[in-house]
Amino acid sequence: MLTIYSDSHRLQNGRSELIDGTLKPCFENPSRADMVLAAVRRRGLGDVVHPRSHGAAPILRVHDQDYVRFLETAWQCWTELGRDCDALPKMWQIRRLREAIPEHVEGQLCYYSMDCGTPITAGTWQAATGAADVALSGAERLIGGERAVFALTRPPGHHAARDYCGGYCFFNNAAIAAQALRDHGLRRVAVLDVDYHHGNGTQDIFYNRSDVLFLSIHGDPRTEYPFFLGFADEKGEGEGLGYNFNFPLAAGSCVSTWFFALDCALEQIARFGAEALAAGSCVSTWFFALDCALEQIARFGAEALVVSLGVDTFRGDPISRFQLDTPDFLTQGERLAGLKLPTLFCLEGGYAVGPIGDNVANVLAGFESRG
Ligand code: OKP
Ligand code: ZN
Known about the structure:
Pfam families: Hist_deacetyl. Belongs to the histone deacetylase family. The chain is α/β, with parallel strands linked by helices and 371 residues long. The chain has a single domain, classed as 3-Layer(aba) Sandwich (Arginase, Chain A), CATH 3.40.800.20. It has helices at 30-42, 57-60, 65-80, 105-111, 124-143, 173-183, 200-206, 258-268, 283-300, 326-337, 353-369; strands at residues 2-4, 16-19, 22-25, 48-49, 148-151, 189-193, 212-219, 244-249, 304-309, 343-347. Strands 4-1-5-10-9-6-7-8 form an eight-stranded parallel sheet, with helices on both faces. Strands 2-3 form a two-stranded antiparallel ribbon. The longest helix has 20 residues, at 124-143. It is globular, with a radius of gyration of 19 Å. The chain starts with a strand and ends with a helix. The site of {5-[(3-aminopropyl)amino]pentyl}boronic acid has 18 residues, from strand 2.
């Protein structure tokens, strides 16, 4: 499988994020992409090529102009205040506060951020546009006839919505790629998000559209980040009603037979109606949810699949609570290949830095094994 990679990811190298009440080194750091790239090479998964630059236009197809302009200028404004530390927000436009965009960068930072884990640094703009280019180049290769492409995107993207950053994400790489595939003439594109965290940004971007199907399998937002979106009753709106599927699974969990779940999948789809799967869900439950998602993609008649590939579903992930083990990622890749669709993988989360490479490479290798 072809990999698209750019060194520009290194320019996003935040110092700290607020975890359990204290500032800790950023979980989302350059070593993640280094480890993934090393594994891609070690495992001989295929060529690694650089992206080409696509400019702002394809980014503006999914992000608001005022938000994009903010990201482009935020660091400069921040340093003009005499600061050289990472820019982080310190309040939010919560209930009953005014919605007008503040004039001061300090206020704008708060207005355009979902959380305080997403530092804007000197290199954020370049790294984020670089990641978008990686995803766009992947989409381009898919259009050019590749069966599957791995866009090694960093910073990740799936928490970034039309007009806000958050969850380590600035531009929604997967959404930008999905939109580019549409703009290249594909009629229906499915985005499947297998990261541990709900892809609130991607959901937001496509929520009222029927041409891009969005599905996410993730930790139940009743207890997991991002807390305020990702519930099973979010089905889409207007034209998009019926084109958004959330599969929240209880945090915690065990390992048992996903084969049973596979057999039951069709019969069980209806259960996903309005409530999350029960507590005690495990690897089998995860694969069960995957089957339900794949079934929806097949029915939709997608012409291409974009996978928001987070491997923070790994049992050793420091900030997540699912139980997938390294070999389970091979199975994951095999199952995704079963859709027989041109597939673009965009890297999202995964914070167990040691195993991240093999976990990602396993998904890609599993996919390739079902050529
Ligand atoms: C990103 B991705 C505040 C942030 C708390 C954020 C988790 C973001 C996960 N410091 N945690 O979906 O892997
Ligand atoms: Zn995640």
